[in-house]
Design goal:
single chain; mainly alpha; 6 helices; 77% helix
């Protein structure tokens, strides 16, 4: 549910950005998008920590941070290219937000709820189903 909220904020901010008619409305929309990004990032790092087996947790969090930094680099390069070569054609750059939000909207349906979340709420059957979906059937391991 929290990630769905972040997706709604991202999508709403992106729509507001692409339809903005002045710099003030665009700035407000850009702040909304950045809030959605921050919300999604804080949720995802917690989710990775909960879902990843402890043997590879550090690697997965490091990979997440590395990919995040790589995405920021690509974004900065794309923005600079637009500013230098076509400063009046900035809307396609903002439209790429829809691509990434769309990918997130599709992939979120394939990720199970955290087994820790279900266990803390006392729903042990859902926690077991989530663990089996995440980790499969390991030999000599009773979920």
């Amino acid at each position: 549910p929290a990630m769905m909220g972040a997706i709604v904020v991202l999508l709403g901010g992106s729509i507001a950005e692409i339809t903005a008619t002045g710099w003030r409305s665009w700035l407000g929309a850009a702040v909304l998008v950045r809030c959605g990004i921050g919300l999604a990032q804080s949720i995802l790092i917690t989710y990775i920590s909960e879902l990843t087996p402890f043997q590879i947790r550090g690697f997965m969090i490091g990979a997440y941070q590395l990919l995040l930094a790589f995405g920021q680099l690509l974004s900065a390069i794309a923005t600079q290219l637009v500013v230098v070569h076509q400063p009046n054609k900035w809307k396609p750059l903002i439209a790429t937000e829809f691509v990434f939000t769309g990918i997130l909207m599709i992939l979120i349906w394939f990720v199970p709820e955290s087994h820790i979340y279900h266990a803390r709420n006392g729903d042990h059957e859902k926690a077991k189903k989530s663990m089996l979906k995440l980790y499969g059937y390991a030999p000599d391991y009773d979920v």
